[in-house]
Amino acid sequence: MGRIRLDALTRQFGDTTAVDAVSLDIEDGEFLALLGPSGCGKTTLLRMLAGLLPPTSGRILLDDADITHTPPRRRDLAMVFQSYALYPHLSVERNIGFPLRVRRIPKDVVRGRVAEVAAQLQLDTLLARRPKELSGGQRQRVALGRALVREPKAFLMDEPLSNLDAKLRTATRVELAALHRRLAATFVYVTHDQVEAMTMATRIALLDGGRLEQVGTPTEVYDEPASVFVASFLGAPPMNLIPGRLASTEQGLLRVEAPGVVAPLWPGRVPAREVILGIRPEHLTPVGEDAARDAVRIRAVVEAVENLGSEEVALCATGPAGAGPAGQVALRGPRPLRLAPGDPVTLTADPARLHLFDADSGRRLVWQGSATPADHPAAVVGRG
User: Fold this and answer.
1) Can you count the helices (H) and strands (E) in the chain?
2) 240-352: which CATH number, 1.10.645.10, 3.90.190.20, 3.30.300.20, 2.40.50.140?
3) pLDDT tens per residue across span 91-146
4) Torsion (CA) 255, 257, 260, 262 in degrees, nearest 10
5) What is the pTM of this model?
6) Domain 4-233: CATH architecture, name and number where available
7) Contact 264, 294 (CB under 8 A)
8) Around 98, how many Cα atoms within 13 Å sit in the side-chain half-sphere?
9) Is residue 255 a contact partner of residue 249, using CB atoms and an 8 Å limit?
10) For the residues of 297-343, what is the DSSP string, one character each?
11) At what angle are helices 107-120 and 92-101 packed, to 10 degrees?
């Protein structure tokens, strides 16, 4: 078993709160990614979990046992560091077997266990080499092997792929995901790279400013972001966020308006309020000037077009000329989009793909009116 529970875990450095009352349940066998920008508290959280940093308050439970103040060596958790932390004077074999030797495990048991782990990680032909003779990817696998050989209850990983080049990162992501499935072990993985989190994790915990913003599967956090922060952090380009005003029309239809933007939604009545309209770049589609009056319409001018190989991204300024500061939206689609800088363009989207956030708090709005069609997940009253 490797079930971990964080209960209001907090860490302060003087007047700065690095981790702010984080409560989180990590189930046995899941791959949880702690995701967020630099300085959000994810590494501090991992170091408290490993026992390398004492919390200011809160508790850590491993399989219902309180390990908040248990020394690191007695936590039965294995840490894989960003820098690998290999012993340069030891061979691969002795690096992998080091945790067992310090526990005075019999030599024949150590050799057998090291051979087994080395075969799993395709290191069996490299056991006699030293770290300086290895590539970055091979060193990363040795560090992982040193954690695996202990057979811990959970693996803690602090950005272990950040020192690898792009091609090797991709290959190692596949290896780590396959290893997790094979071991069925608990992985807690710190990263600032959304691609790593989206492709490997079974659940993602997004942090910002030391606080937990959202926890969910990769699909949930991408398709139903709980806040403006989550919406703007995930995606490349990230979600388009357009400040606007939500109101009900005389015909009883909810509609968001902003400079150059008219977004009819669905039947309902609410008091007028300021909101932020969110649309993923891949959910926008260019249409002709004769688009239906009841369709979502964003009038813009193309500023730049980026060629991404199989796709293109068009960056567009919204709002009519002379109407004040222009906003910007991104459109992503298969190449070629047949757009060029300076082209006027009208964009539309399925209302079911729109997201609404409170302008003040930045939290997702959830519709609670019975008149809303069930296929419209976006929201306008209440908070999600």
Assistant:
1) 8, 20
2) 2.40.50.140
3) 999 999 998 888 888 988 998 999 988 888 888 899 999 998 988 778 888 888 88
4) 0
5) 0.87
6) 3-Layer(aba) Sandwich (3.40)
7) yes
8) 18
9) yes
10) EEEEEEEEEEE-SSEEEEEEEES-TTSSS-EEEEEEEESP----TT-
11) 130
First-to-final CA distance of the chain: 32
CA angle 12, 18, 154 (to 5 degrees): 105
- Residues present in the chain in total: 384
pLDDT tens per residue across span 49-73:
999 999 999 999 999 999 999 999 8
Cis ω for the linkage preceding 237 (within 30 of 0): yes
Dihedral-angle region of residue 189 (phi above 0 means left; psi in -120 to 50 means alpha; beta otherwise): beta
3-class state of residue 136 by DSSP: helix
Burial (CB count <10 Å: 0-12, 13-18, 19+), residue 343: middle
- For the chain, residues classed under CATH 3.40.50.300 are 4-233
d(CA 41, CA 78): 20
Cα 316 to Cα 320: distance, rounded to the nearest angstrom: 12
Which helix (H) or strand (E) segment is 175 a member of?
Answer: helix 166-183
